[in-house]
Amino acid sequence: MRLGELTIENPVFLAPMAGVTDRPFREICAAFGADGAVTEMVSAKAMFYGNRGTEKLLRRGENETLLAAQLFGREPELMAEMALRLEERFDWIDINMGCPMPKIVNNGEGSALMREPELAAKIVEAMAKKLKKPVTVKIRKGFDEQSVNAPELARRLADAGAAMITVHGRTREQYYSGKADWDIIRQVKESVSIPVIGNGDVTDPESAKAMLLQTGCDGVMIGRAVRGRPWIFAEVKAALKGEAAPDVPSREEIAAVIRRHALELTAEKGEHVGWQEMRKHLAWYAQGFSGAAALRREASMLSSREDLEKWLEAFAKA
Q: What is this structure's pTM?
């Protein structure tokens, strides 16, 4: 797959997830074979006003692979100017037209832009004219089942200068419930000549291969399935290359990943915030193991390195 000057074979990307895909977690996913990632979404308006928290979301790790910055907003010139500020630091700039959260949608941003295709195209056009690096867009199936318009919107965005479209096969009204509609991804792929990435219900190597086969898309993006399981990238990449599946990580190997994750997260965000955020990750890492309920309870009270080591001892015995 070609994306600007980049060539990526069978790309498997990490999806942007607010509060999850920060720099420490992206670096871990890169170590397991993720071909690239997208930052947590960043407000163009917050960037303009110099919001400190925004800059933290845009930190890039030394060990990251390809990385895009994801912007959200609805003002074409402001989006273009903020993207220009970021261009040198990232491999491409992605526009969020898929976020379903009310506080975003109520401002006419995120997936609300799917109801305003003319404005959506103007945003892409303004950014593509300003930037030398690729401008890409993430959309959904539609805003709701009565306004499914992903193929038509994708054509307008491609004509406006988008270099790649990522499609989440759910409507905004679905949020993350129900089953992703892979046929809409196929329709988008057939409607444009630029690369299309499929997103939604890719949970293992089999589903990744099935999505590629059923939709003809150029690559896949994995979201919720990677929480607590970053080694899914190694599994999917091996399957797409026709190689033998890698060994499932041992308890000791998983414990090492968790320890690295926790130490980098607390170094990045400080002890108080870092340990608070690590609690949800520990709950995800515990999924599927015997004694997971007790491990989740213990994780909810964790607040120090000493607590982490005690948790890992319990994890080793689960």
A: 0.96
